[in-house]
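Lab channel / #folding
Pinned by the channel admin:
"Please post every new chain as: sequence first, then the structure tokens as a reply. Keep commentary short and put observations after the output so the thread stays searchable."

First post following the new format, from NK:
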Amino acid sequence: MKACVLHAPKDLRFEEVPDDALKPCHVRVHVVAGGICGSDMHYYFHGGFGTVRVRQPMILGHEVSGTVAELGPGVSHVKLGDLVALEPGIACGACRYCQAGQRNQCLDMRFFGSAMRFPHVQGAFRQSLVISERQCHKVAATVSGAQAAFAEPLAVALHGMTRAGALLGRKVLVTGSGPIGALTVAAARMGGAAEIVAVDVASAPLAAARKMGADHAIDAAADPDWATRFEKDKGSFDVAFEASGNERALRSAMTAVRARGTIVVLGMGGDMNLPMGAAVAKEIELRGSFRFFEEFAWAVDCISTGRIDVLPILTDTIAATDADRAFALASDRSKAMKVHLAFA
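Reply from TO:
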């Protein structure tokens, strides 16, 4: 079968790779759709991020759906023909974090398409793969492969909401309106937020955030001092989600959030200089949010029941044979939110 294999920056080849052997309690899945994530783009354009570098040919991709094509011995939870969303990470189950129910912090996590360990963990942008049945989450019969492929990024947004705590009746700020920010808007709306304000530096993501449930959208490029409008009486927002990874956005969130407000950081930025005096004086709670664990099943349920409509942020679906064009489109924020590769 063929897969999207990265050999070097901008050297992505749709080439033959060996099929994996079927194992007990595993299934073979024919991949239908795969979403291009920010980390995939870092690998494609730059060969990695931070100290993480691609050191051997690696199949990209972790936002994937597919149909069950073959069952290994002992499989009992899925059947042939099921459309499933694929949970991309498998935790060891034995370390202290797994034992505490914090699988996203696993000390021996194997996550699709990751160069964080060597040999690298191969990804899921391929025509078929063998995967543990516990990583296969069946979706409703009314759900498409494209919708199912959104389970992973929606799980990231839902984990951020879990980290924030109850949102019912709260004023919520979301800085960064890319796919994760837009899905966070949808999650906050489902969570009962009274008012949601989305911020970005581009008009297309802001339009998408409105479609996902934002009450107001602020163009920070046209209005760079927007946060000062919300700083009266030590701030206006109960909760802020920072989804851009940008230092200026996080500093603005710290200005706009109220005293004893909560900021959940979803965006993966570098080191930052932050106004820690304001954090202390306003008693701001700054919380990180990394991947997800039980939220993946929750995301599948939200998509299956229609509680969250993910399709407004799907920009285009492009054949995996034309992956270079798909990555070029995905990198253009004026034209694209989420781009999918089609394998079926």
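NK: The chain has ten helices and 20 strands.
TO: also worth noting, Residues 151-164 form the longest helix (14 residues).
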